Amino acid sequence: MRKLLISALFVFLFIISVKAQKDTAFASVRYTFTHLEDTTWPENPSKLNMILLLGKNMSRYTLFDRFERVRNNPATAFGAMSPTMAAEIAVVEDYIKDITNGKLSYMAYPNGKLFAVEENIPVINWNITQETKEIMGLACQKATAEFRGRVYDAWFCSQLPYNNGPWKLGGLPGLIIEAYDAKKEVVFSFVSFENVTGAQIPIQVAGFAVKATVKEFEQYQAAVEKDRKANVGSSSMAGGSVVVSGSIRAVTDGKPARRRQLNNPIEKK
Fold it and tell me: Helix, strand, coil % (nearest 5) of the chain?
């Protein structure tokens, strides 16, 4: 019955048309993304190298290291994976903004299926202040806003007239160079801005992804989690091992391994 529920939800969703909106990057912005996922372990936040690819009508925010690996050697970027699986893994956790149509797609890969979780590009009610500062040679101005349960300070550069930024942030009269929440549990730090030259870098939502609204995706996740818990319970009764959910193993130099509990999501509401 549980498997039928998951299958029914999957069928309810539909495959994105291969005629999906496409664009090409004219510039790239690199950021360091720091996120305190586990508030009980403040000295060990997650740190990721990210890149924002800017196109005329679309943008893509993705993992820089993975992007470079795929771009430099796509055939071997993911070892012995099948081409289909490698293509799916290559876009997991990407955020693609379709500015023309006002849509944002988050690429997720639960239970071995690639989803494009679509919502409207958020409208953030920024308060632009008179405060300014220079960040790596760029003149920036401060704006503040409450967004998804956090209060953010964002520093934007009107010399780079793109109303975009890292993750879901944007909507200012200039590129967001730096942003952080009030507790600095979520921080986007500027690394570089470069014009794209040479080979074209396409920006598009994968045509083979399953398109879903946020609500549909949450329903699918809930069904998968319910099925997983039932299977774990069955394994426990049969003497199998139990996997702790909602955490990942993190290791620090010279100290015992412990689990980073994911108790502080970037979106709190």
Answer: 20, 40, 40
- Residues counted in the chain: 269
The number of helix segments (H) and strand segments (E) in the chain equals: 4, 16
Entry pTM: 0.83
Would you say 121 and 170 are in contact if contact means Cβ atoms under 8 Å apart?
yes
Helix (H, G, I), strand (E, B) or coil at 176: strand
For residue 112, the 8-state DSSP code is G
Give per-residue pLDDT as tens, 145-201: 999 999 999 999 999 999 999 999 999 999 999 999 999 999 999 999 999 998 899
The identity of residue 185, as a single letter, is E
Q: Is 200 helix (H, G, I), strand (E, B) or coil?
A: coil
Q: What angle do CA 145, 151, 152 make, to 5 degrees?
A: 65
Q: Render pLDDT for 30-89 as a digit per residue (tens, 0 to 9).
A: 999 999 999 999 999 999 999 999 999 999 999 999 999 888 877 666 666 677 777 778
